[in-house]
Amino acid sequence: MPFVPVLRAEWTKVRTLRSLYGALLAVFAATIAFSAVAGVSDTSDPEFDPLFMALSGVTPGQIAAISFGALAMSSEYHGHAIRISLAAVPRRGRWFAAKLTAVALPALAVGLAGALAALLAARAGLGPAASGLSAAEQVRGVVGCGVYLTLMALFAAGLTALLRSGTATLSLMIPFVLIVSFVIGDLAGGLTDFLPDRAGQVVLHESYDGSVGPWTGLAVTALWTAAAVGAGAWKLRRSDV
Amino acid sequence: MTSIDLHALTKEYGGRRAVDDLTVTVRPGRVTGFLGPNGAGKSTTMRLVLGLDRPTSGTATVGGRPYAALGAPLRHVGALLDAHAAHPSRTARDHLRILALGNRLDARRVDEVLAETGIAAVAHRRVKTYSLGMRQRLGIAAALLGDPEVVMLDEPSNGLDPEGIVWLRGLLRRLAAEGRTVLVSSHLMNETASFADHLVVLGRGRLLADTPMREFIHARVRPRVRVRTTDAAALGGVLARHGHEAVRHEDGHWSVDDARVDDIGRALSAAGVPVLELAAEEGTLEQAYLDLTAAATEFATRPQEV
């Protein structure tokens, strides 16, 4: 069976659940709101990075993106809904690809729009402190932010398919990006640059000096996401539903 | 003509056989009642047919092909597995629209099946506001969406009100009359007898019966007459002359197998045998079914060979 009708069905699933709408809206709102607040913060800190300050909304924004990815997938594991889905689309690989596409496209659109709005809002607040940012840096920051949020949503969707539970995914990923990454990040040094959230957020900084650059950092996050999605696909293919 | 073919179908979960060497053909043009106690393997069999669970061994095909090989499967097979599978926060119409989109079905079918199952007026409401009976109707609507040749319904009468049961009976009869293959599971014999032409009975995953409904009733429900008299010798004589065998029970009543009250009553009256009591004592259909499945349970609880 062709891919496009399956994608249309999966996209309609996203559109017809209020909780998913809400999560997408939260990605947008959280990213902007945090950045706007950051825009009026202290700029005298020696480690002050105007680009990351302007895009600091990514921290709450990624929580919303993770929730969106996890919810979109976990709605299938609610009351055996996936049985109806796979009875309608028995090619599991194709169904899974359509589901992930229906997660990725809106996450990317909302992520890009949110990042752009956040940057504009923060620059209004930061004033001259952010005037040194080049156009290229700002484009990199906005595109990188959109891609990063999309990768985190896909990571969560893949992990949810592996664990067959949105609750399990959220209780692993949210503490990880909020706490664990910071704590072991300060302890372990070099290797932590390769954690999915650390690596992917390099692209949001004006200056960087770790072992990964902006785009290699996103590639590292993409590898993590590919691993989670691959594990989810493996679980879906081999198990009874 | 599309039939469901199960061949030596076996499914084990952690060493327990949910479906055990099942070979059955479910044919078109009739309603096949799929009976068995809870846990007999009916739902598992349906999931195996739909490719949702993988068989441990054996095959399940629809029209000779595995389900996953069907192009737009909803056009061939419609199934109701679980009334709670529709997402509670979606409306019934959206639920059906999504299924129609993925299989490229005409969007008009959504309204047609909503009307056919009697939930058109509540189609804009979220599924979580539905009663179990309404959810069953939505599940049946989803099964009919692709106008399929094969319809498989798992316990569809669960939660339906009496009017709904009558409606369902008519629907099943009509689907079969249109030449479709209709497989309907239930754990209630009398209910199944009201709509099924053919019976497939499972017990502990094994096939216990695969027989026309009429034959099942004929073979398993034997008419019997209960008689009490003050003149046992005369009674025995009359019954023997009419070719009946009577069994005397401890409390003094007699029972006559394969006999009808009309015949026994006339014979005893003509012979002048005093009768204190005369009654039909037929085992019910439900009892015949219980006897069948109880035997399977006893069989299955013997120590199993490894």
From TrEMBL, chain A:
Q: Which domain of life is it from?
A: Bacteria
Keyword hit for Transit peptide:
no
Keyword Transmembrane carried by entry: yes
Give TM segment ranges.
20-40, 52-74, 95-121, 141-163, 170-192, 212-234
Keywords of the record: Membrane, Transmembrane, Transmembrane helix
Name under which the protein is recorded: ABC transporter
TrEMBL record, chain B:
Task: Cite the entry's keywords alphabetically.
Answer: ATP-binding, Nucleotide-binding, Transport
Work out whether the entry's keyword set contains Ribonucleoprotein. Answer: no
TM ranges are: none
Which InterPro entries does the record cross-reference, listed alphabetically?
AAA+_ATPase, ABC_transporter-like_ATP-bd, ABC_transporter-like_CS, P-loop_NTPase
Gene3D superfamilies of this UniProt entry?
P-loop containing nucleotide triphosphate hydrolases
Show the GO MF annotations.
Answer: ATP binding; ATP hydrolysis activity
Give residue ranges for domain ABC transporter. Answer: 4-229
Keyword Amino-acid biosynthesis among UniProt keywords: no
Q: Which PANTHER family match?
A: ABC TRANSPORTER, ATP-BINDING PROTEIN
Q: What family does the database annotate?
A: Belongs to the ABC transporter superfamily.
Q: What is the protein named?
A: ABC transporter ATP-binding protein
